[in-house]
Amino acid sequence: MTSPRTRISAVAATVLTLGLLAGGCGSGDGDGGGGGEDVRTAPSAPPATGTGPYPTPTPPPTPTGTASAAPPGTDAPARPRPSGAGEARGSTVRPEDVDPADADKVGEGALTALWTYDTAADSGPHDAGLRAADAGWLTDAYADRLRAHQPQSVPGAQWQEWAEHGARTAVVPEKTEDAAKPPDSETEAWRQWTVTATPEGREGWKGEPVVSAVYVQLTRATADEPWRVADVTVR
Fold first, then answer.
1. How far is Cα 82 from Cα 163, in angstroms, rounded to an integer?
2. Its pTM surpasses 0.70
3. Whole-number Å distance between alpha carbons of 140 and 53
4. Could you report the per-residue pLDDT of 55-93, keeping only the tens digit for each?
């Protein structure tokens, strides 16, 4: 049974925005390559056990350092999927490949899926969130939020540069816990990760890695059920 919670608000600065349910994995969520709304979630975090509070969850990320293709306050159409593109390669790791009782493994697999972009087939980072939702890494509620989200702006300059090279991101999540992490309960676990996504394209092209500090909330109904990612916050 989880301990009482204290509502804690957090400021999530998206470094990579997935266009998921925010301004997108997350982590908040956003649309690829700049511009996009930041939709945050309401759940409150458990009380911190260290010096700093864990944030209220907000969804994943989009490549930043880029200008929005649409003027502020306007809704631009989503970038069309590349013509002739096949299925996105995405992450090859699936929930059935990891121990569902291991929150670390489930969190790592989910983040890898959320940050794996394939510009040869994806219309934007939001597509990675949809793949993660369909693969079963996320809770039903979180998956539904990502599916319901409609990106309102086109990916920015960084995504466009990656697309010119037909880039796909190589993702390396590294666990980086801190003193503020709440203790695990039977039905809730928090994890902190540093996620490095490196775009790798044709003819050996490689772009600058994008590094994000990511907080993951995992939940399950009972101790006998598999962990699933309930929310992601990017700082």
1. 9
2. no
3. 26
4. 554 444 444 443 332 222 223 334 444 433 445 566 678
